[in-house]
Write a structure and sequence with these properties.
The complex is a heterodimer of chains A (about 400) and B (about 525). Chain A is an all-alpha fold and about 400 residues long. Chain A is about 75% helix and about 0% strand. In chain A, helix 5 packs across helix 14. The radius of gyration of chain A is 22 Å and the shape is globular. In chain A, about 45% of the residues are buried. The chains are: A mainly alpha (about 400), B alpha/beta (about 525). Chains A and B meet through helix 1, helix 9, helix 12 and helix 13 of A and helix 10, helix 11, strand 20 and helix 13 of B.
């Protein structure tokens, strides 16, 4: 075929450019995050990267990141979940009632909360998967219902405080076993270890690729990407280590991101979800149980929303009737900034997480600069629009 | 004869590809000019240049229409001059009426207020011209595809068309509807309207075309005049593929074994209209190594039969028995059917066959993900090997296994669909319209693959609306009409006449069957 040989020739001439053109989105979002961080570091005279603020940044965004991971799955599957903010608030309220008012031990209460969250997600997923009710409508209803149920539980008041052990989930730090003075060596080592594992994994997958053909990613890009990721991780954990070390939530997030990334990319379940989102009919006729997958995706989302609810309640040290309000919008925005497609079938976990941090850094940076909430909203809205316009523009060009 | 259209030296490049290379074409007033070529030869691109989809300046060369050089910057520009293109995928809005569709964007209105009387009066007049006997208020969704084509043509006539471009107008029509569409073209020709007919159906072209332009790899190969010389289909094919195709069908010696697939008394009802039997007491059997064809008109219930057997993907209230290797087998869900060794390659690869946004590598293992995974973890290496193997074995033309399937030509897409099913290692393959919309060369390759499958001892069922294909490929043919099997012919005794005869004799009313409602029904079942 004339066209294939020609494109191939073109690839050979300037592989780097051609590669960048097709993968601009993945690198673009990483560069966008770095650029935004650099910008706010300068604009805030370095406050952004101060260890205490960095800790804050992680804690503030942890619940958004946790939910973005679940939302990514939902959106890839071709649906949307508007109820996550309300579910998160409801579970926070439930945990307060169980732990503070009924005195149930917090580990048991937390498990009950996660189970209730999964059940809520499953209940919504049931209508969406087996009755083919549009997810927009089911979860819009869920948003109202669970908001109401939260108010019933809390009777309009804030409930708290939580026991300290429970609070440690959100505001605690991992213990330092090495005992350096003023420097959290365990965190530093964990950071270095994580970076090393990431480099090892990507080197191995590149070797594998090389063993059956030339790797698609040019070598310079491979080195550059790994260098940036390594430096970023080591530098950020260093900053955190000079303060109180890695927050517990950070570990939870890291495990979730790694786990769900693996599920999405490397398991048959992940493949099936992407196929269902890409073309439900073809997936079903290929023997994929699209209904059950959709159902499970929503149950998973409910469970992650519950986890986010626990973290949020633990962080505030109380459950308030306002908890979770409009969080669903931040979560959905994060996923779309991260490159997912509204039509389904496209998106990555890491992209969604980076999207969440882009929003988070902007929130944090603008707050430090003293920019009013009014302006913040407008700017965030425009960034979301710009990210998606950029996507569509790129798609049309190729 | 005056020349109405002249395209001179049209060259259009896409990044890295020369889609059109110095193409010349002239169309005379009141002629039917056929444009043929393999998929990817540049037919659609040429028509997009002509209709202004690619604006002037985006290509090199000149377009003269009606005696003047024209520069079209949009479809609206070309339509204003009287060039109307009717695409393969019809651009009608299903839930609007015929009249609303015809005057969409061109409404009969005064100051923005609709004049419905005038709209319906003019629609009626247009429908008379295309001999479509329907109420202008009827919603388009209630019409079969054939009638929808006529509505498209009526819409074109409403714009005072001088040159009508039809892109594969008959590819999804049954023979009768195709016939009447071609008659209508002849009728328009007598009124002085020229048309460009893009088609893969060479028999139709030799029947109606005055001249034929053949494109190959983006260049004009020849322009054949059907009046000055006798043009045969093989002449056209030779120019299209650049070589003479001696046989349309690869040779094969059938080696037929035991019966491995049997369906008994199969009945299925329409998923929405409860009382309507779509498949009515059908029994069939296929032996190992045998290729069995199912003939019938559109809407005869062939796809419905296949899909209802394959994991009840269609219909409600399904009854009957499936026997595989002589044992009654549960095939009530798609996973069970696949596990039992059954597979169904759809007639509509874009909607039901491929995940178009994904690449070849991801599409091929979709029906057998366990094959590339350890437990639930996908083994990337094995996945790539599988994809490479099938890409080579099926000679899928692509830049590599990482090419998105949406960018493949129809024939190569079909090969990916077949690869997907072969990788699931079925014993019984049901292939629904395996060569629809595929060019001659790729068809031959698909036929070879099918023959190889039969030679490997698989039972193959082919559903096809192209009778020569059924006659050329099958060892045995079932004839289906209105949900029932109305005849069975061995390859030696089958002919187009006999098959049509069986259909006509059996039909309670062949003429008013709703021919293509079935596509919408399948859609409804999935989306609604």
């Amino acid at each position: 075929m004339a066209d294939t040989t020609q494109t191939r020739a073109q690839h050979a001439q300037m592989p780097a450019m051609a590669y960048l053109r097709t993968h601009i989105r993945e690198y673009g979002i990483l560069f966008a995050l770095i650029a935004i961080m650099v910008f706010f570091t300068i604009a805030t005279d370095g406050i952004l990267l101060r260890p205490t603020n960095l800790t804050n940044l992680v804690l503030q965004n942890s619940y958004i990141v946790i939910m973005a991971v679940g939302m990514l799955m939902v959106i890839v599957c071709g649906h949307i979940d508007l109820s996550v903010g309300s579910v998160m608030g409801f579970i926070g309220a439930l945990s307060a009632v169980l732990i503070v008012q009924w005195g149930i031990p917090y580990p048991i209460a937390a498990l009950i909360c996660l189970a209730v969250g999964a059940a809520i997600g499953a209940a919504q997923g049931y209508w969406i998967a087996y009755w083919r009710i549009p997810s927009f409508i089911v979860t819009l209803a869920g948003m109202l219902v669970f908001k109401g149920m939260m108010m019933v539980l809390l009777k309009g008041q804030s409930v708290g405080p939580f026991p300290n052990e429970f609070r440690a989930l959100a505001s605690g730090f991992i213990p330092d076993v090495t005992g350096f003075d003023g420097f959290h060596m365990t965190s530093m080592l964990l950071g270095i270890l994580t970076a090393a594992i990431l480099v090892y994994v990507s080197v191995r997958s590149r070797q594998k690729e090389a063993s059956f053909g030339t790797p698609e990613e040019p070598f310079a890009f491979f080195i550059g990407r790994n260098a940036i990721v390594t430096v970023a991780i080591v530098y950020l954990t260093y900053l955190l280590a000079t303060s109180r070390g890695l927050p517990n939530v950070f570990i939870v997030m890291a495990v979730l991101i790694a786990g769900y990334s693996f599920i999405a990319r490397q398991t048959t379940i992940g493949r099936r979800i992407y196929a269902v989102g890409g073309n439900k009919n073809a997936a079903k006729l290929s023997g994929i149980n699209a209904e059950r997958l959709t159902f499970l995706t929503f149950a998973n989302m409910g469970m992650l929303a519950a986890l986010a609810g626990l973290v949020f309640a633990a962080r505030l040290n109380m459950a308030t009737p306002k908890a979770g309000e409009t969080f669903e919008l931040d979560v959905i925005a994060a996923v779309f900034i991260g490159g997912a497609s509204m039509a389904g079938g496209v998106g990555t976990v890491v992209g969604a997480v980076v999207g969440a941090f882009i929003m988070g850094v902007m929130n944090n940076g603008m707050s430090i600069m003293g920019i009013g909430i009014d302006w913040q909203q407008m700017i965030k809205g425009l960034v979301l629009l710009a990210a998606v316009v950029f996507d569509v523009y790129n798609k049309n060009k190729t | 004869m005056t020349v109405i259209l002249e395209m001179k030296g049209i060259t259009k490049t896409f990044p890295g590809v020369n889609a059109l290379d110095n193409v010349n074409m002239t169309v005379e007033q009141g002629e039917i000019h056929a444009l043929v070529g393999e998929n990817g030869a540049g037919k659609s691109t040429l028509m997009k240049v002509l209709s202004g989809v690619y604006p002037h300046g985006d290509y090199d060369g000149q377009i003269f229409f009606d005696g003047e050089e024209r520069r079209f910057y949009s479809i609206a520009d070309s339509e204003r001059c009287g060039i109307v293109i009717i695409h393969q995928e019809l651009a009608l809005i299903p839930l609007l009426s015929i009249a609303e569709n015809i005057f969409l964007g061109n409404e009969c209105a005064r100051g923005g207020i609709m004049d419905w009387n005038e709209t319906y009066r003019r629609t009626q007049h247009l429908l008379d011209r295309v001999s479509l006997n329907e109420n202008p208020r009827t919603k388009v969704t209630h019409l079969g595809l054939g009638k929808q084509q006529l509505v498209e043509i009526a819409k074109a006539l409403s714009k005072e068309v001088k040159l009508l471009i039809l892109d594969e107008p008959t590819s999804s029509l049954n023979e009768k509807d195709s016939e009447s569409l071609l008659e209508l073209l002849m009728e328009l020709k007598r009124k002085g309207i020229a048309s460009i007919l893009i088609s893969h159906k060479l028999n139709e072209i030799t029947k109606v075309a005055d001249r034929i332009t053949v494109l190959r790899d983006g260049a004009t190969v020849s322009t054949l005049d059907c009046h000055s010389q006798e043009i045969s289909e093989s002449d056209i094919v030779r120019d299209m593929v650049g070589r003479a195709l001696k046989d349309q069908f690869p040779p094969r010696k059938p080696v037929i074994g035991e019966t491995i697939f049997e369906v008994r008394n199969w009945t299925a009802y329409h998923p929405i209209h409860d009382g309507r039997k779509v498949v009515d007491d059908v029994s069939l059997h296929v032996k190992a190594g045998e290729i069995v064809g199912i003939a019938g008109l559109m809407g005869a219930g062939r796809t419905e039969l296949a899909m209802s057997v394959f994991g009840r993907s269609y219909g409600s209230n399904i009854g009957g028995e499936v026997l595989i290797h002589g044992r009654p087998t549960d095939v009530s869900t798609v996973p069970k059917a696949i596990k039992a060794g059954l597979c169904y390659a759809t007639e509509d690869r874009k909607t039901y066959g491929l995940v178009l946004i994904n690449d070849i590598r991801q599409n091929i293992p979709l029906a057998n993900l366990k094959g590339i995974a350890n437990g639930i973890v996908v083994d990337n290496r094995r996945e790539r090997e599988v994809a490479q193997t099938y890409r080579a074995r099926m000679s899928i033309k692509s830049s590599g296994i990482d090419q998105k399937t949406v960018n493949l030509s129809g024939g190569n897409q079909q090969k990916v669909v077949l690869s997907k099913w072969l990788y699931a290692e079925p014993d019984i393959l049901i292939l629904d319209e395996p060569t629809r919309g595929i060019d001659v060369g790729a068809k031959y390759e698909i036929y070879t693959i099918i023959n190889d499958l039969a030679a490997a001892g698989k039972a193959v069922i082919i559903i096809s609306s192209e009778m020569p294909e059924l006659l050329g490929m099958s060892d045995r043919i079932y004839v289906m009409n209105e949900g029932r099997f109305v005849g069975e012919l061995a390859s030696g005794e089958a002919s187009q006449e006999r098959i049509m005869g069986m259909i006509l004799r059996s039909g309670r009313s062949v003429t008013d069957h709703p021919p293509t409602e079935k596509t919408t029904e399948l859609d409804l079942q999935y989306h609604g």
